[in-house]
Design a protein that fits this description.
The chain has helices at about 70-75, 105-110, 140-155, 165-185, 195-210, 230-240, 255-265, 285-295, 315-320, 345-350, 385-400, 400-420, 450-460, 475-480, 495-515; strands at about 1-5, 35, 130, 190-195, 220, 245, 270-275, 300-305, 320-325, 335-340, 360, 365-370, 425, 440-445, 465, 465-470, 485-490. It has about 525 residues and is of the alpha/beta class. Bound molecules: pyridoxal-5'-phosphate.
Length: about 525
């Protein structure tokens, strides 16, 4: 298989902000030729058990894995090992969490699996991707899982009596078990596939919200929420008359727990917040908040978009009632996400969208609903994408989420040290000293300069960062800003990339100051 690197022609900047003052034309993109063969593949992508008679030949994967030596040496089980993927288990059980070496360079270990990251960008400079909070890059194991599904097993699920449909259904449902294990769900019945996290939140607002909220009931959110966790509740408030409240921030850019407690009352029916902010990078103490929320008689929804790719997430340990995630943030395909909720809650909720797949029996005027989780999944789902998401989970589990978190903490400290040394630059959110578990990203503002100009100029040096409001407009308004520049890292990020980014950023700031 030959993968063609993506040209660097993605739209830049933020539509709501004025155009950059510095107009830049991209220099012709020089792409490195990358030929990815099946024999170079590392982690097995399907995590499957013994091939059943219904299964086609799995994709050819070589025995030698980029990750395997480290894993084998430490005696870890691969998530794709049949014994490790048998049924639903806690995420801790299927990954290499026990032996975390903080000095371990995960970028060196994983980079060969990400051919896109080896491309040469402008002026012969290597591409540096620092936009993981927007979307992750995909390892070749995920690409191969997609290719294998569409090349060997493609059929509609749950419907056909034929072998392709049976194989597609098996892959689709097996992926659901992987998601359940990834978040520590009690069963795969608790995992509802959605298009993304936004749809999962809308599902809860439309079904649970409309069935349970009346005028005067309160939904408690926070000022740091992504628009996906603000707008669905605004729409719900318009439909039901419920009231939205928002917990504020401390001076360090963390959740203000006193304000949170003061806004939580017997009127609160639901609390919905991020586990990790995509702009502040702070980690909210969900397990600490859950008992408070439940004592007030409310339910707790956790937006885990920015935590799932970077740390171990376990719904039982968090004590939440709903949790949502997007596959594309954690190395899986776009167009796929999920809602986790306790089975009893899902049973009590009315369906979301109507159509095929979600019914048990249809009369001309009435219908009955399919069992969980299919009651919430109308129409033909994103089958290949679900299987690709399962392959992404296998990949992450094979590394181990605690290992990822440890490496990214080290990267975060380096990123902050380099950025804090730049005059006139302010980073939003807590420092690694204030919050050691904070996320590996930095949204920053440079006095007198526009974030779009900074991002555009860095792009011309092959460095991809984001600029704009990052779908947290109210949070930016809280700081009196229309936007920030944001560098967000992943486990494939190298220390050398952080250093080059910081050097180019310093040069960019100097250039912009000189020319403005
Ligand atoms: C914290 C957070 N919540 C929700 C979302 C929405 O994710 P999606 O667009 O995949 O639905 C994002 C995406 O940036 C996010 O960072």
């Amino acid at each position: 298989m030959t993968l063609t690197p993506t040209p660097l022609d993605a739209p830049r900047g933020d539509a709501t902000l004025p155009a950059p003052a510095v107009a830049l034309s991209l220099v012709a993109v020089e792409e490195a030729a990358m030929s990815v063969t099946a024999s170079e593949a590392s982690i097995a992508s399907d995590g499957s058990k013994e091939p059943s008679p219904m299964q086609s030949e799995p994709p050819a994967v070589a025995a030698a894995s980029v990750l395997q030596p480290a894993i084998a040496t430490a005696g870890f089980a691969m998530a794709s090992d049949p014994a490790a993927s048998d049924g639903v288990r806690s995420s801790a059980a299927t990954s290499a969490e026990s032996a975390v070496d903080p000095a371990e360079d995960l970028a060196a270990l994983t980079r060969p699996d990400f051919p896109l990251l080896s491309q040469i960008a402008c002026l012969g400079q290597p591409l540096i991707y620092l936009d993981y909070a927007a979307t992750s890059q995909k390892p070749r194991q995920v690409l191969e899982a997609l290719q294998h599904y569409y090349g060997h097993d493609n059929a509609n699920v749950h419907r056909g009596a034929h072998q392709l449909s049976a194989r597609a259904t098996e892959g689709f449902e097996h992926a659901r078990e992987k998601v359940a294990a990834f978040v520590g769900a009690a069963s795969a019945r608790e995992i509802v596939y959605t298009r993304n996290a936004s749809e999962a939140i809308n599902l809860v607002a439309r079904t649970w919200g409309e069935a349970n909220l009346k005028p005067g009931d309160e939904v408690l959110l926070t000022v740091m929420e992504h628009h996906s966790n603000l707008v669905p509740w605004q729409l719900l408030a318009a439909r039901t008359g419920c009231v939205l409240r928002h917990a504020g921030l401390t001076a360090s850019g963390e959740l203000d727990l006193d304000d949170f407690r003061s806004k939580l009352s017997e009127r609160t029916r639901l609390v919905s917040l991020v586990q990790v902010s995509n702009t502040l990078g702070c980690l909210n103490p969900i397990a600490e908040l859950a008992p408070l929320v439940h004592a007030a008689g409310a339910l707790l929804l956790v937006d885990a978009c920015q935590s799932l790719p970077h740390q171990r997430v376990n719904v039982a340990e968090l004590g939440c009632d709903f949790l949502v995630g997007s596959s594309h943030k954690f190395c899986g395909p776009t167009g796929m996400g999920f809602l986790w909720a306790r089975e009893a809650l899902l049973e009590a909720m009315p369906p979301f969208l109507g159509g095929g797949e979600m019914i048990q029996d249809v009369e001309l005027d009435t219908s009955t609903w399919a069992d969980l989780p299919h009651k919430f999944e109308a129409g033909t789902p994103a089958i290949g994408e679900a299987i690709g998401m399962g392959a992404a989970i296998d990949y992450l589990q094979a590394i181990g989420m605690d290992r990822i978190h440890a490496w990214e903490q080290r990267l975060t400290r380096r990123l902050f040290a380099r950025l804090q040394a730049i005059e006139g630059l302010t980073i939003l959110g807590p420092t690694p000293e204030q919050q050691p578990n904070r996320a590996a990203l930095a949204a920053f503002h440079v006095e007198g300069l526009h974030a779009n100009d900074i991002a555009a100029l860095l792009d011309s040096s092959g460095i991809c960062i984001r600029s704009g409001h990052h779908c947290t407009q109210p949070l930016h308004r809280h700081y009196g800003l229309s936007g920030t520049a944001r560098a967000s890292l992943g486990f494939t990020t190298t220390e050398a990339e952080i250093d080059r980014f910081a050097e180019e950023l310093e040069g960019t700031i100097g250039f912009l100051r000189e020319h403005s």
